[in-house]
Amino acid sequence: MGYIVLLIVAAIVVCAIAAYNSLVRLRNEIDGSWRQIDVQLKRRHDLIPNLVEAVKGYMQYERDTLNQVVEARAKAVNASDQGTRIAAENQLSAGIGRLLAVMENYPQLKADENVLRLQEELTTTENQIAFARQAYNDVVLSLNTRIQTFPSNLIAGNFGFHAAEYFKAAPEDQAVPKVDLAMGAPRVQ
Amino acid sequence: MTAASDFRALEAANRRESAVLVAAMIAILAALGFGLDVWAGSIRIADGSLSGFPLLTIFALIFGAVQAVISFYGGAGLVLLSVHARPPTPDTIQHQRVLDTINEMAIAARMPPPRAYLMDDPAPNAFATGRDPAHSVICVTQGLVDTMDREELQGVIGHEMSHIRDYDIRTMMMVAVMVGGIAMLSDFFFRMMFYSGGGGRRSRNDKNDGGGAIFVVYLATLILAVVAPFFARLVAMAISRQREYLADASSVEFTRNPHALLRALEQIAKSESPLKAATSGTGHLFIVNPREGLREDRERFFDNLLSTHPPLTKRIERLRAMLGAPGQATAVAHS
Known about the structure:
By secondary structure, chain A is mainly alpha-helical. Chain A is built from 7 helices and no strands.
């Protein structure tokens, strides 16, 4: 009789350890995914001044679009808290989408190797941000499901695991999740 | 969560399958080696007991082991060499786009980016190889780079990325080795039997009976030599076909965009130039097997049994079905 109780206790302890470890793994994966997004966002901040500088001469009549991008970038760089930063980054994404779309109207840009290179780099950065966000949200979904379902919810409650926030995209981003303007399909605004 | 546990299960299944394939190869090689030993007279069967030194069995096992080790560590390099692949040149924007797309899909798959290689061939095609995600390679043809837009490229590379994530690349590499090794040894056995003919008679002259047992061993080895390469192929093909559907589905999981791969496969179906560099040894690695070509009429049972890839039309059909499936809408909503 005593053995059976002992076995049951041992089984419960093993399950608890496994649940705890998988929660820790998911939390670390979320941190890793967030850093991945962060790297891409920083890369985008570095790219924008170069691109704006390169196309300014060609795009005299797109001052507004260019200014919007520059302002959104400044707001994102100087954001003090996470909330404002995400809002500014989303605004920046929209601005870059517009910029890349109007760039299609300037055939001279296609002859400028430097511009093409910057355009490719910005396009892939945008895509990498989108895919990193997708990966991040997938892991958040896994963690939150674990935290809410039995039996891992007991472990999560006792060891202070909290549901993570999704990285929400701006509304227009949700309609078209992938930015892919190098192929010439203008984005729906 | 289900997607994650699905691919962990697949990965475990692939690691198991690779190990089983290697074990099966060793067993078959040992059996063939033993048959050769009996034929050559280095093993004698008398009164139900064996005597002599199994030299050829040991040789067959060493042959198999060396082949397995070389292919495990050097297989990717050998494949790249055999299709004349070279690193892309990032100073052209076209090739930079390939490198960028590989990085994008690596992020989507949460994997280290594989190394990129390029084949100078006008036929649009691609393959992945390597022993694990950290030592993996994606190779695309110049034709693929020329004809596909970014979205289609993402679909194709997503397909290859899924082969890497699920360890299909390891299984397929081992399959190639196993099929090749067994075919070689079977071939060797036939040559021994029909062209040398010396050894067997010598052992029969010993006349310590055991003639019946020897005959059984000959017959068993002969059947094995005929059947083994064929069955090895059959098993390999069946494994491979299933993996292609899974990789198509995973590509959509990464891109969240069934159109990407759908359009890419349609482009490949339309293309007319056949890939020249692929041999029967490497054909099964590609996203569309160039040796099976783009035959539309592959509906007969026997053709399907021996092909490594499902018919292109069937794969396109399944992707079309995903476009209409309501399940896909929820996947997009999460991102």
